[in-house]
Target: DMT family transporter
Amino acid sequence: MNTSNELTSATLPLVAPRRALPLPLLEAGLVVTWSSGFIGARFSIDYAPASLVVFWRCVVVTLILFPFVVRQLRQTSRTVLLKNAGIGLLAMAGYLIGVTEGIALGVPAGLAALFADLLPMGMAVLAAVVLRQRLGRQVWAGLLIGLAGVVLATHDALALGNAPPWAYGLPVLGMLSLAVATLWQKQAPASQAMGLLPNLWLQCFVSTFAFAGVAGWHGSLAPVANSGFVTSVLWTVALSTLGGYGLYWMCLRRSSATRVASVLYLSPPLTLLLAWAMFDEPLSWLMALGMAVSTLGIGLVIRGEARQAQKPA
Model:
């Protein structure tokens, strides 16, 4: 059963206009907008706790999208809503809470980002162990080479930090949460598919309650009355949520989970480049070399999957 094709067909009214866009163009947009999330978090720490920013980010998204999705939500069965709500909790709340809380407890941002960027490897291992999916040697080689590129690119930004030992597991758990959500979404039957905007609204809606709990634990849920907080929320609403998560699910409908995750290997070096442009943080040749190595690894993943797809079943 070709789940990707079935998902695309099930949501044809929403997906059809975007089919004209080449997949590599969508993937390029995904890398840029996904990287913007780390930049938004970096910018926001001077104005408000990260948990408060992600809480209000979800609140704003649910308010903006609701008029456009309410009719489709009413026509969707409770079973489908509950399934997609579960995926949303894992993909958004689980991932972001794991990363942001790890950083809040003292895990250095560079190390937390590296753990989060183990997503392609985590997804591949889960697919092989749990779903019994077989990946070719070239795909595994590409994933390992891509990871090596990430380590090279982020080498200068890595530090051990003073967090309690268990806190270092939070970004890893966040990564695994997104990996499980991705594979769950990819394996779901076409009959349980939702349109892109209703799905994104539902994920933000259910995640709002999880973020409210975390942000409330740290303090007040009231927004901070300064322009920096407003800018942080609007930045993450437009780029990180509507852009990053929107393009993530869009690309997932067009290609394999392994390919989509592997493309995110380019996120760390691009994040460092954006940090240099916006915050004057230093660059190094290792970053450029790491991006080149990651690009090579992604190319191997794409070619390996294409070769595997051509083999007779």
